[in-house]
């Protein structure tokens, strides 16, 4: 019942509609686009190094003859997957840990917040840098786990303090007096009432994760060659932006579009979930 | 010549919301004008417009003249010179009206020094005098206290002291006693009257409480949907209302002095100021509506001799036929009692509380917490609720009502004593039993907005208890529940915020009923609602009780509502029960001095009675529950103790009275060594 109402409200919001359409188009481009192009991302055309966009190579070629169109789309796939997975994991973890700490209180609260504080004081960049050589050959999913593990703590502290005030609300009391178990109350009443915060947080996390992935990749700790991501492509193209702008502009432009459309959808979802917002 | 003259005042907020539409009134020297109306009727906005305190973006038109000078187009710096000097204002919430970082004395002295050229020490002395005038004990010491060190009633007195600091000609009081307990309210109203005598100011008294207005006002202006609908002297308005809304409002109040079988609600809700109906805004709710009502909005017109005004095209007819609220409004039918209830002793006991204790430790220190005291929130109370009965728990804030409720609802072992719900002792319940028992014990909360999860459509809210207890066919049950409480079943997909306060409270009641409980705890279920809406919800609660065979534990501070709804009443004071018994006994022959003071402090919506009533004013505030007085807890404020001899008074200080049955046959007990037997509520002559 509720999801139906939320979807109807989401469809009525023009910004969210544009964002959703743009996001769907980008996903379509990333996952269907490679089948349309003439080259695959592993192909190397030794007759065309650093060629500008042409009918043969739509977005030009790189210094080793790779098709920029194919490579960029491949990188976008990776960036989308990493961005969304990291955002999902870190926001979900933040919501659950924060809400559980705030709702149950006592030793649960102390243990969880001690863990969050510990992760906060550890230098995450360094730890990921040290750990990732050991994970070479392992799946890139480890990279997602590491990025997520170091980005949930501050949100979870905010969630905890908001839960502390929510816990005293009468509708939470009412649910408790109805005999509904604590975990159900957290999932049904606490987390949805924090959804505005969580959705904004998740949206920011998508772009933060993509940027974090890019900077780690730049130093060679993130996505490892021959695999590519938008981050590694931007890093590689940024040095030649004046002479060979297509190397930089296509991945960077797609990154901007991606983050923008995710943000628009996030705003729209927040308005749809929050019955107090004016539509 | 009037001091304050308001003519055709209009206030429009952004988005075309007409909050005030054509308000006119005059206020003379030493006169008290009561402005009454329900929430959203524009009464507060009117006074803010007079003070020039509206937020930017509000369009104000019309005229406001103070001593013949127009205020509306006066430049801001001149207005500042008037505010606090010629016009004083008293707000509802005295805590937010004081700056927390300065002492009360400093803030009053500041108010004096801004408008008068006097020295610092003189201003400080004047502040102490003012605090003395409003009845604050040890004013020289208390002037050095910070706002948080004052209780609510004391802060409101200090607020009055500040408002009268410069001998204003006009005092605007916006719900000055709404946030206070009745005994404190009685004190503060008394102080207001003193302040008026001292300054000779005209007072504009804005309130929704018709009892307060009856006691203090000379003339009354009734507002509805931003428009004045009736104006007259207090006697005219109360005894001969000539406008259907006023008539309905007066008929819908539960009366402590004149209990009636059935309250008369006004159907429907006040219109939204953004979408006013064409014609008379009250027409959709009016029982006297004719087709002409929808054509044009009636203006406030003079009826009869004098300054009597009414905005209704049928006022003359009402006058001629001598109609009143009880005759024009349909009285809702009471549900038929199925059978004569069995005597109380033969019925099952659904809730029994025996010597229940709840103490909170008072901790100090950040790293090493140590216990520095104990808050005696509930200190050994006993009562029981029989099947099909309503027991009301009344008392002022801080007396332990809420703690008692929470202890019962938690279904866990209390610190001391026992709580037995439907024959099961809460201390010995296993987890599964506790969940099963929750089916039979439900709660309705005070604030209808906070009690419903704003993120859930109403259907989901009602489905929640059903799902938790494994019901099937939830959709049908939701529709059934919604129609049971008088709502449209097709509204299940709406969010709580799309409903008005009264409707939300009905949803709260529907949720409590979902599992077909036997005992419902009502935590101030109508105190957040407007009078005209309140009557409908009270009637609903009564109907449901009879139809579903429910028992209620009803917590309230409004003794008029209690008299109407309850069968038995328990009066609490500082964590103990002061008096308990059937409603007729306790209201008719209150034995405990606290109950007597409480009953006498309630303002009655009857000007004659209010004028002739003898009030028992209690002194001071509730003592801290962390340090209750020895012996009888009420002895520090007891008006009776002054009349006792030294020997008798010592007994009050040394021995704590327990509830004693006053006579062997009646259901009435009081915790007083020297109980009394005499009537306190005078019945109306009308």
Automatic annotation (TrEMBL), chain A:
Principal location class: membrane
Domain of life of the organism encoding this protein: Bacteria
Compartment(s) where it occurs, according to its Swiss-Prot or TrEMBL record: Cell inner membrane; Cell membrane
Family matches, as CDD domains: TM_PBP2
All residue ranges annotated as the ABC transmembrane type-1 domain in the record: 80-266
Cross-referenced InterPro entries: BP-dependent_transpt_permease (IPR050366), MetI-like (IPR000515), MetI-like_sf (IPR035906), OppC_N (IPR025966)
GO biological process, one term: peptide transport
GO cellular-component term (any): plasma membrane
Family of the protein in this entry: Belongs to the binding-protein-dependent transport system permease family. OppBC subfamily.
Protein name in UniProt: Oligopeptide transport system permease protein OppC
Organism field: Streptosporangium canum
Native organism taxonomy: Bacteria, Bacillati, Actinomycetota, Actinomycetes, Streptosporangiales
From TrEMBL, chain B:
Xref: InterPro entries: AAA+_ATPase, ABC_Ni/Peptide_Import, ABC_transporter-like_ATP-bd, ABC_transporter-like_CS, Oligopep_ABC_C, P-loop_NTPase
UniProt-listed SMART domains: AAA
Cellular compartment(s): Cell membrane
Family: Belongs to the ABC transporter superfamily.
Any Gene Ontology CC annotation: plasma membrane
Membrane topology: Peripheral membrane protein
Signal peptide: none
Superkingdom in the source lineage: Bacteria
Pfam families found in the cross-reference section: ABC_tran, oligo_HPY
Residues in ABC transporter domain copies: 4-250, 362-599
Name of this chain's protein: Peptide/nickel transport system ATP-binding protein
Positions of transmembrane segments: none
A Gene Ontology biological process term: peptide transport
One GO MF term attached to the UniProt entry: ATP binding
Alphabetical list of NCBIfam families matching this protein: oligo_HPY (TIGR01727), PRK10419.1 (NF007739), PRK11308.1 (NF008453)
CDD domains linked: ABC_NikE_OppD_transporters
PROSITE patterns: ABC_TRANSPORTER_1, ABC_TRANSPORTER_2
Record keywords, A-Z: ATP-binding, Cell membrane, Membrane, Nucleotide-binding, Transport
